Structures are given as C-alpha cells and as structure tokens.
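Report of the visiting student (M.T.), summer placement. My assignment was to run the structure pipeline on a short list of targets and document each run. The first record concerns Proline dehydrogenase.
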Amino acid sequence: MNITKHNHFIYKRSSHPRRILVTWQSLRHQSSLVSRHPDASSEHLQKQHQSHLYRISTVNLLRNIFLGKVFTSPFLFKYGVACLSKIANSRSAILDPDKNALLRALIKPMIYDHFCAGTNKSDIKKTLDYLKTMGFKGVILIYSREIPAMPVEALNELEPLTQDEDIDIWRDGNVKTLDMVEPGDYVGIKFTGAGPRVAQALAQDRDPPQQLLDAMSAICERAAAQGSRVWIDAEQQVFQTTIDRWTVDMMRRFNTNGQALVSLTLQAYLKSARSTVEQLLQQAHAENWTLGIKLVRGAYIGSETRTLIHDTKIQTDECYDGIAADLLTKSFPGFSKQDFPNVELFLAGHNSESIRKAYTLYKGLLQKGETPPPIKFGQLLGMADDISCELLAMGEKAGQQVEKDASAPMVYKCMNWGSVRECMHYLVRRATENQSAASRMESTVGVMQKELRRRMGF
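After the run finished, the structure tokens were exported:
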C-alpha cells in the first residue's frame, strides 16, 4: 500500500475485513481531514461509505495491483528481485539510477515512490505533513545511505583514517533528516551508513571511531533540543552485537531524564532476543536509565546465519508476543512491578494479530488502573496500511484525539528517504518482505481489483 504526496490515503482491507473498525463518526472525522487535502473532491467524499479504498488514486491503485502481482508470482518475483539486487550492488554508472535517467524513470514511479518518502526536502515535507493530517501521531524518517556490500575479509584490510569523509557525509545526511522532522517524531540511524571503516569497527567489535562518537553526540543533542527522538536500526548479525553495545552506551548517556531519547532495535526472530531483553533490563535497572526498545520480527533473514533464527514462524510470533506482553505487564523474571526499570516500547510490525494482542493488553491494564510502559505502534510506508488504519480507527471510535486519550494507540509511519540509488538496498528488503507474505498480498490484490472494477462501473 502507498501514501503519496499528492494522492488520497489508502485504506486496505485485510483478509478479515470485519476486523477493521469503522464507524460513521470516524468516517465523518476522516472526511473532514481529507477535505483539507487539495485533491479531495466532494464527489469522492460522498462515496466514502462504498469502499475503504476510495481515497487511493487510480494510479496508485494500478501500481498496488501490479506490485502485488509481481510479489505473488514466483517467476516475476525471482527475476524482479534479481534485477533490483544487481542494481543495488553494482558500481557501474549504467546501473546507477542516479546517473542513468532511463533506469531512474523505471524504478522511481513504480517502486521508489511506493515505499520511500522522497528525494528532497520539499517532497518529503509533503509526505510527512499529509500523514499527520490523516491522523498519524508522528513519523520515523531514516536516511537511506548504506555501504556497498563488502566481505568481512575486505573490511579487515581497510586502513584507519584520521578524518573519514564517509562519516561526514553520513552525519550531514542525518542532520538533514532532523531538519525535516518535528517534535515527537523519530530519526532512524543506520551505523553502517557511516562507511566501510565504521562497518569494520562493527564487524571487529571495536569501539566507535571518535569522529563517529562526535557525530552521534551532535545528532542526539540536536534531537533532544528539538523534542525529537533517535532509534538505532538493526542490521546484519555480523554487525549487530557491536551495534547493541554502542547503542547501550548512548542510552546510558542520553536516557537519564526518565525518557528514552535513544532506542535500540530488537529482532524477535533471533533465538537470543529474550535473553537480550533480560540483560538490557538488568543494565538499565542497575545504572538507572530508561530502556528504549523498538521490537521487530527481523528483516535480514536472507543474509543471517540460519541457526541463529527461530526454526519456525510460530516460534518467532511467540517470541515477539511474549516479549511485548512481559514488558507491558512488567513480568520479566528478576523484577517486581515496583522495581521494574523504566521502559518505552515501540511495536513495529505488520502482523495484525500481534498488534491487536498488545493493544488489547495495554488498554486493559490502563482500565485496571495499572501503569504499563508507554507504547507506540508503527508500520512501514507502503505496507500494512490496513493495520495502521485499524489502530487509527480505534482511537477515533472513542471520539477523542490520540493526544487526549491515554488508551488510544499512538500510530506512526516509518519511511526512508534519499536518492533512488541510496534506497536500493532498502527496496530489495521491502520486496523480499512482501513476497514472504504472499497469502496476504493475494488477498490485497483481490480487494484492489474489486475496487478498480467498481470505479470502472463493472
């Protein structure tokens, strides 16, 4: 699914449409928001009761159908992702979409615009403003720069530099990202985007270069001053242990005022995920800082050591749901509810059952007068808009704005920005993730096709 800068928001039905909570009151509220969007027409608004997909433009509708067909076709997916991967990993100018106008003209409107916020400040601002107009509490914006794939052996041969230009470029990109977000928003950080020598330090479990420490200090101090927050993205397992260590050092420094300025990313598909949470809780409690956790299932299954990952999807689901529940109920072993460390939880995911379970538990705890850790929800731009909209509808059903209702879910959209070239690795991961949910995509394509036929009068 897609939300673009010039088109109406997408409502996507899940395979269980009755689970989408929509009331006449919420539709009236949504229509009042859409009426402020320049592309909203009165005729369009009058049809809001006919389809949840009425807000999506016909161009985006066709693009969703096309991409859905690609993701659910083994043949098309195999060769499509092979082409994207070739482009992402190539150093040839011919295969560089930032230099090859024809290649860019193919990739940008069909794939990039579906999943990414934009290439420049003006386009990104339109995307972010529109998302918030639709009712999202905030956004997570990530600078997409990643290093070209390099074997660990090649990283080991790199000579250290006193002044690394890659770190400067990375720092400037993240500062630009801060310039484009508002108080309450998040900036996502990928350490490997700082260049091969930073990746070398990560792979060798060394301390960060001083130049990187200075850059991160500047980013965090800037975020704190403007009321934004920082989360550190997960990456390949060869880097992840060191990423976690560096992130804990940052939380130890910046999460001391009762809030999580910095959050780390925990991947529930790893067998070590639960023990990692226990260790983090112990550190946060002993050192008196707030633990910020973004809980995801994981996005690097194609490149990870398979033995590190749960054997089945069910085990991953149980791990994700169990960690979320035990953090919300403050029931991790070794802690009582009274001495449980400060935790802020961000559930990032596209599994509707997990999101519903967590929100139902959270709301129930509040109704009992308990004080669960603050919780936020987020989905990627171009994916799982049915879940996002269901969460928004839950808040609207209460007849209150999110900020006025402690139990209403705070919903965010996460997106990358950068040039088409810089976003290629991200786009490959999104394509892979969509294909892994083929049954869900097939259902979505069917709903989209039905909406297209409705518009054509069939």
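Strands lie at 138-143, 186-189, 229-232, 262-267, 291-296, 343-348, 375-380, 411-417. Residues 1-51 have pLDDT under 50 and may be disordered. I thank the supervising group for their guidance throughout the placement.
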